[in-house]
Write a structure and sequence with these properties.
Distance between the termini: 38 Å
Number of strands: 5
Strand order of the largest sheet: 1-3-2
Order of helices and strands: HEHHEEHEHEH
Length: 132
């Protein structure tokens, strides 16, 4: 499947809108209750699709099996780097989260809160690399 077809297969539904400030987005559904309720309804209404929580306001609706684990496997195929040699960072690595498929597929993951924490984790990993 081409990158454009993969992108077309993923439809994030932003429950609170895309152009809000991050503080507004986080305040909209801080305990995930709104999105969990929407997820239950959408999974019943769309049984042939996958519905997972992502970001601070969105639900990802995809074809079954087209998820981030699929993307990691495709990255491995195209890069020649085995998934066992990759590390995935995500903010939704929990049951029902849009990053959890990577963990469920047995790949190494690190849960992060946001972009800033991701940057901190990456800087820490780089600092641990041997000097060449």
């Amino acid at each position: 499947m081409s990158a454009s077809r993969i992108a077309a297969a993923r439809s994030p539904f932003p429950g609170w809108g895309r152009k809000r400030r991050s503080t507004q987005k986080k305040a909209w559904d801080p305990d995930f209750a709104k999105r969990k309720a929407m997820q239950v309804l959408l999974r019943k209404a769309l049984p042939d699709l996958s519905v997972n929580i992502g970001g601070s306001t969105s639900l990802d609706i995809t074809h079954a099996g087209i998820d981030k684990a699929y993307a990691m496997r495709r990255l491995a195929e195209h890069s020649g780097i085995a998934t066992a040699d990759m590390l995935f960072l995500g903010d939704a690595i929990y049951p029902g989260g849009n990053d959890d498929a990577v963990r469920a597929a047995g790949m190494d993951t690190i849960a992060v809160r946001d972009v800033a924490e991701t940057a901190t984790a990456v800087r820490a990993m780089i600092a641990c690399l041997p000097v060449r």
